[in-house]
Amino acid sequence: MNSTDALSPPDAKPARWGAAAVVSLAAIPLLLFVTIDLPLKAHLLLTGLFMAAGYWIATRRPSLRLALIYLSSAVSLRYMLWRATYTLTLDRTADQIFAGCLFAAELYGLVVLLAGYFQTVVLRPRRPIPLPDKAALWPWVDVLIPTYNESPDIVRRTLIGAQAMTYPNKRIYVLDDGRRPEMRALAESLGVGYRVRDNNDHAKAGNINAALKSTNSELIAIFDCDHVPVRSFLNVTVGLLVADPLMALVQTPHHFYNPDPFQRNLWLEDNIPPEQQVFYHSVQIGNDYWNSVLFCGSCAVLRRTALVGVGGIAQETVTEDAHTSLKLAAAGWNSAYLDVPLAAGLATESYADHIAQRIRWARGMTQILRLDNPLTKPGLTFAQRVSYLNSVMHFQFGLPRIIFILAPALYLVFGLHPLAATPSDMLAYGLPHMFLAVLGGLAGARSMRPAFWAEVYEVALAPYTALVTTAAFFSPRRGKFNVTAKDVQVGQAHFDWRRALPNLVLFGFAVMGLLVGPARILSAPLEGEALVVAVIFNVFNVAVVFTALTVALERKQSRSTHRILRRFAATVELDDGRAMPASTVDITESGARIDFYGEELAGCAGWIWIELNGGWAPPIRFTVQNESAAPEGKLHGVRFVDVSETERRFLVEFMFSEPDSWSVAPGQISTVSSMRSIMRAPWRAARGVWGKGVGSGEQAT
Prior knowledge:
The chain is α+β, with helices and mostly antiparallel strands. The strands form four sheets. Strands 3-2-1-4-8-6-9 form a seven-stranded mixed beta sheet, with helices on both faces. A six-stranded antiparallel β-barrel has the order 14-15-16-20-19-17.
């Protein structure tokens, strides 16, 4: 039941057999390089050629990424074998413990690196399959929108977007675990179904499972209550489930229309992509190739019979979505991933909320590791085991990342030795490993993340994920589901000392290493080269931890709704009788920035008609609030007045429902520029909060 090839590219099976043959032949020289001790000069010459070839591939021939993976795997395996056989013999007990911790952290990194290479070895985006010509063959879909404590305004947008979907055979339900009268009234006013239960057992998973008992459509679409679908969502996704009776899950990306805390607090909205972009536009494409797509809890369509067959949404862990997809795969069902953003929602809006969300993910993935390990779970293929295991293992990064930060500082400050090797040997084996691993990671990320930013993301979370994964490993059944806060406002800019405290401690150790490093070099000339290497690593760590700390500098956010970039032609009629053409630049449900093509309209009021696809929205009353300079000229911020429900519906559909509303473009930023952006981010954030501001500004409506 695992193999239905109707949805795979036509050459998928030959490609896999061909890849297997190539890998088998290439394994022989790889094993020879890894296991044979070459003279140091020969090793340097060979790894130098590998590094040059890897750089050429990464910068000039990315289509040869498989060769880069091969080179990186070879030098990384050779490095770790050298580390295991030559560098762990130390005299002092303290050194032995320290060296063992560092080696374990590096071994974890190697496992994740190689599994990640396997997981993303083929990045071939899947194409949708059209629905049958006869609409009578289109299955019915229950659209489930779970909510707990989110504001009705957020849920209203999603309901309007769901109703705007052009797929005819759908029923929409609000699943209100808050059992709120205002949510019932909202559902009734919009004409959608409303479901509640008499308890909150198992949080979101229990909420959806309860709804499965009172609905009966063949397919189930699930949206978090802040994820607004485009009108073509079901038309694009359902065809895959119609074409393959063994298809249980079709997942689409989570796209966010507001900046995440890294982009927002570092004032880098236009300079770095969202933190999750690599997962949704690289890792999941690789998962699709191996039939191991992760269900992400929203923006997905599932087959009811498959879901019911595995007991519904998984309730044993707090990452119910990922666990459910693992169960579906083990039961023999297929999964698909469409790398097309077909919905948009809210990213976490504060550092504290980001930590809380990632803590839940880290706990849940560790629970899966302990309670339903992909390595031992019956029914999975080898490729599925590797893919799911790597997804679970990723969230164990906390302890290794802390060890990597502390290692050079502890050597510089306390003289603890992390390994028994000369600096020249360390560079000869370690530098090629790190250099090619960075290049391989960038190639696998499809230019969706600049170099070294993964370190910033992980350091910002490491103390928290380290704690929760350790606790969950020993007590996997403890812990509860926490709801990610939405529509958060920050009244005043401030530094979140409470959340930053663990990283302040790490930063203190790194700075101590920076301060004592020169003195140690002068006082211990026999260790001079080793100390210089440690100082270099420590300087990098100081920059990364300082940038991660700056994410806790919460930027003021007084907006009630987020602006979305939308260019619409418009006609304006002012109260003084003047009429003129205009266009929107960005828009919300409460206001917009308008280009009046040079007209000075401060303090004016009137009516605006917005055009879309040759039609006009109902006229909306507005007042001009402010003026601002922009590259396209002077713009006016306007506030909509007394917006009716009809006008609100049009505004939501304008902002969210067009099929091409959301797009993702790969970034093009050099490794040097990426490092420079990390070094400059703290100063940029400080200037933004306490200076005149940089970047895109507050953009409040």
